[in-house]
Amino acid sequence: MVRIKNENLRKTLRIVVPFVLIPAVVFAGVFVFKENMYAWITVACVILALILFYASFDKKIVGTRRMVIIAVMTALSVIGRAVFSVIPAFKPITSIVIITAIWIGPESGFLVGSLTAVISNFQFGQGPWTPFQMFAWGMIGLIAGYLGDPLRRSRIALAVYGAFSGIAYSMIMDIWTVLWYGEGFKWELYAAALATALPYTMGYAVSNVVFLLVLGRPFGEKLQRVKIKYGV
Fold it and tell me: Is the pTM of this model over 0.70?
């Protein structure tokens, strides 16, 4: 397990990677590189997500144990997307990402969200949209981790964040929808995309609330026991 020892470097990476480098890489894939370069953009995003995760811990054994939890939560998220694939816009992915983030940490939530997009798209289809999904789910997890305390204490706050996340995910993906036309970003096209996607946006929001209220407490209790038992 790679470990970043310099504290100042770790703090810098935890800010620069998610808020500067990953967005830059995602949008570079649209404006700079050709569409068939999306696979390399995806790989670059995975590497940056791993760097962000490695920057979140300073003890090798703790990082290894946390990685096992990340693998399990990512697997559950991928399986959940497959199981609920027959129901449009009703998936547990975002909820599992949020639960991971608020109990294990923001960087862990980012990594689960990013890896879920990449791994599950081997079934649902890889494409230039994959880096946008990685960024959207990753940032939802990252922010949830920063809001961990209030989200753990209040089911209402958790439900509100779940609804917000559904809307935010749809809005980020609608940016990709507009850019896909190949004429640059236009606000009128973006407004039209938002209006067209409204039923799906509402579906994302509702499904997040449902899954968070159903899974939040049992998953949280299990993750808390794992944290205490293994010192994560």
Answer: yes
